[in-house]
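Hi everyone,

Forwarding the result from last night's run.
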Amino acid sequence: MDKQIAVITGASSGFGFMTSLELAKCGYFVIATMRNIEKSSQLLKRAEELGVYDLIHIHELDVTSQASINRWRDFMKTLGRIDVLINNAGFAGAGFVEEIPLDEYRKQFETNVFGVMAVTKAVLPIMREQKKGRIINISSISGRFGFPGLSPYISSKQALEGWSEALRFEMKPFRVDVVLVEPGSFQTSIWTSGKHVTKKSLDVMSPYYGMMKKLEEHIDKGADKFGDPSEVAKLIVKIAQKKQTRIRYMVGKGVKTAVFLKAILPWKVWEGIFLRQLK
């Protein structure tokens, strides 16, 4: 195949959906993967409307299943190369630490961390041997900050950030770049259908119920100001096309300012500012 090949996980909605289309519009042959391929109809319909239907191939991929990853890897070997891998599949676990079963943390990490590791490990031999490639891991501004009520999601993203840094060092000698994209708040399903709140924290008898409701109200209140996910999709495509990259790309309203303030302010001041926002 003469076209560059891009693979993206979690392509049925949100950033994955938009990025698949943006990549195809730029001439990439896109392997748009998703756990349930029955959810591919909207993506294919939009691709046809944009005239890029022939540049998008749907493939089943459950990042938590090694058997599924093996089937996808075998298919990729038939194409002979992988130029870009975008690890986007994920969800947001929520609730308060005391009430979250460890199994829910494990489930969060299986998708957001170990799923990324497993998919990436499947492509590393291909990229290393071809001596080129780019791996773009979709993190979050949560990879830089801790928030109450979102510890499963936040801890998974912070783990992803450290792992990505280590991998970038390892793959540089083979001309394979590893990049983190850190979106702020955008209009995707991760905070609605993609958010999984532990049952106990939603129980009115929970000592954390009031805090949980305030957190949800805080998120809902700002939802109309969330950014357009196409902004993130276009950034991902730009990163895919760059000759040289840096490790992190922040995107979203106010995220750079927030990172700067956290870096320079004493923790006590930062903590006070944050807690007042929640009130």
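Residues 102-130 form the longest helix (29 residues).

Cheers,
N.
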